[in-house]
């Protein structure tokens, strides 16, 4: 299973393609790009809407799988054409904008409407601040870029290309995804006709095909260090300047990820974190991302007082990125059995709107000196309504869809994140599913989540206790059985 104020985005699987049972911990808030399109002679096949800025978008990649699930956010076009470009290619881009790639929004919109295709220049990043400054000026002037958070280096073109296909798949619901270089002369109208023709197969690799010798000499431009794995002659493949992959092919690329845990459980796992103004902490975070590649970054301030906002941002992000049956919010100070969680979530239910957790009620703390003080306690009363403990709970897809559909300022935010979610669930027609295996104080044959309830809202000394629990056979090696509770 595998993309200011800058917008952060990570890709995921849409509902019409492969899906995960659950997405555990995620991020984002994303764009509004509207493109009116027609597919060949078919009328009204593709959604049309007025052109809205920004056309340029930033995509941050964590090398996870997937794409946007929400069809209202994935814009329908016949094809997405990414013109691969670099920091030394300003002149090429200017030439293209004077020929077949229009330089103004209205002309670009007309081209996209007439061909059913969306066009963007695709570029990575560089550590050269002056070049980045020049790029920002060009983005501001033309607004026709897709920006990837990947180093723009010739030696990393395969990585950039994969990032491009993942980004394009995440942003556009297309029949084809076209990779093109910025040094070819293109006839978009004819490309549109070629892509629109009827095919009796859904997995298509379209290009000018070739075979040829494998160059093993390091002094040669097209030297292939892994040539020994290929043989003397390359397999049949398209020339690089332009080729197209059908949606089903790109979906397979998006889904590829070497992660046995995710494959065995049907769940995706990421650490979720916001941002801080502390430059040294952000620098450390970037190093950790580089080393482990298992974090999703939210463009929201990381503050304890803003946990309800971060939680809402997480659910909106997760829904945008993964087509899941459930979305699970978990804290980083609990001991979790992913295999058992997977079985719990996979069980058959006769209701589609589920709020699953270890449920509780209790007194509302109105004393400002107390840790769980609730300033809006007067609106609740003396006792909290039924809601799940905060360390771990899950919302079904239909519930999260309702949250996504509401505007941010339409939610009431209480001081405590678990209470806030519980309040929203109280207003919805959800089924409260109580499972005590999500709040066990010690490992058992059926425990799913272990934490020091009620003494702490997680493990009291998580760095030490987590390792101790994992060394216990009953915690880590006991069978994946789930109670029928």
UniProtKB/TrEMBL annotation:
A GO molecular-function annotation: galactosyltransferase activity
Keyword entries, A-Z: Glycoprotein, Glycosyltransferase, Golgi apparatus, Manganese, Membrane, Signal-anchor, Transferase, Transmembrane, Transmembrane helix
Chief place of localization: Golgi
UniProt pathway: Protein modification; protein glycosylation
Secreted found in the keyword field: no
Span of the signal peptide: none
Enzyme Commission designation: 2.4.1.-
Residues annotated as transmembrane: 21-38
Highest taxon of the lineage: Eukaryota
Keyword Oxidoreductase among UniProt keywords: no
Topology in membrane: Single-pass type II membrane protein
Cellular compartments per GO CC: Golgi membrane
Cofactor dependency: Mn(2+)
One Pfam family, short name: Galactosyl_T
Cell compartment(s), UniProt: Golgi apparatus membrane
Similarity comment: family membership: Belongs to the glycosyltransferase 31 family.
Role: Beta-1,3-galactosyltransferase that transfers galactose from UDP-galactose to substrates with a terminal glycosyl residue.
Protein name listed in UniProt: Hexosyltransferase
The organism of origin for this protein: Artemisia annua (Sweet wormwood)
């Amino acid at each position: 299973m595998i993309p200011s104020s800058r917008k952060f985005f990570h890709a995921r699987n849409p509902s019409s393609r492969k899906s995960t049972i659950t997405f555990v911990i995620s991020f984002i808030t994303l764009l509004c790009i509207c493109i009116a399109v027609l597919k060949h002679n078919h009328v009204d096949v593709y959604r049309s809407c007025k052109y809205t800025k920004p056309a340029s978008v930033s995509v941050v990649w964590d090398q996870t799988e997937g794409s946007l699930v929400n069809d209202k956010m994935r814009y329908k076009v016949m094809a997405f054409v990414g013109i691969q470009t670099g920091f030394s290619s300003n002149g090429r881009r200017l030439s293209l904008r004077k020929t077949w790639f229009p330089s103004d929004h209205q002309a670009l919109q007309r081209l996209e409407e007439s061909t059913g295709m969306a066009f963007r220049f695709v570029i990575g990043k560089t550590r050269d601040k002056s070049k980045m400054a020049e790029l920002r000026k060009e983005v501001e002037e033309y607004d026709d870029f897709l920006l990837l958070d990947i180093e723009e280096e010739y030696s990393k073109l395969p990585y950039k290309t994969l990032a491009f296909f993942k980004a394009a798949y995440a942003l556009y619901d297309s029949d084809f995804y076209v990779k093109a270089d910025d040094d070819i002369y293109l006839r978009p109208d004819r490309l549109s006709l070629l892509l629109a023709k009827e095919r009796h197969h859904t997995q298509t690799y379209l290009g000018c095909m070739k075979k040829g010798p494998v160059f093993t000499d390091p002094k040669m431009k097209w030297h292939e260090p892994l040539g020994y794995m290929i043989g003397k002659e390359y397999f049949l493949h398209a020339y690089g300047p332009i080729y197209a992959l059908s949606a089903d092919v790109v979906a397979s690329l998006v889904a590829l990820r070497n992660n046995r845990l995710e494959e065995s459980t049907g769940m995706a796992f990421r650490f979720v974190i916001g941002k801080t103004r502390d430059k040294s902490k952000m620098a450390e975070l970037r190093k950790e991302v580089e080393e482990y590649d298992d974090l999703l970054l939210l463009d929201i301030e990381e503050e304890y007082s803003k946990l309800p906002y971060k939680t809402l941002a997480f659910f909106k992000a997760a829904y945008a990125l993964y087509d899941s049956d459930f979305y699970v919010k978990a804290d980083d100070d609990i001991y979790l059995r992913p295999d058992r969680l997977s079985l719990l979530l996979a069980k058959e239910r006769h209701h589609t709107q589920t709020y699953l957790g270890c449920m509780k009620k209790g007194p509302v703390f109105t004393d400002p000196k107390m840790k769980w003080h609730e300033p809006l306690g007067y609106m609740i009363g003396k006792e909290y309504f039924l809601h799940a403990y905060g360390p771990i709970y899950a919302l079904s897809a239909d519930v999260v869809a309702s949250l996504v559909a509401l505007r941010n300022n339409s939610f009431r935010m209480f001081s405590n994140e678990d209470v806030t979610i519980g309040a929203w669930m109280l207003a919805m027609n959800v089924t409260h599913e109580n499972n005590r295996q999500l709040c066990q104080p010690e490992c058992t044959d059926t425990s799913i989540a272990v934490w020091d309830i009620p003494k702490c809202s997680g493990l009291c000394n998580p760095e030490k206790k987590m390792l101790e629990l994992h060394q216990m056979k009953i915690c880590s090696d006991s069978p994946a059985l789930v109670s029928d509770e």
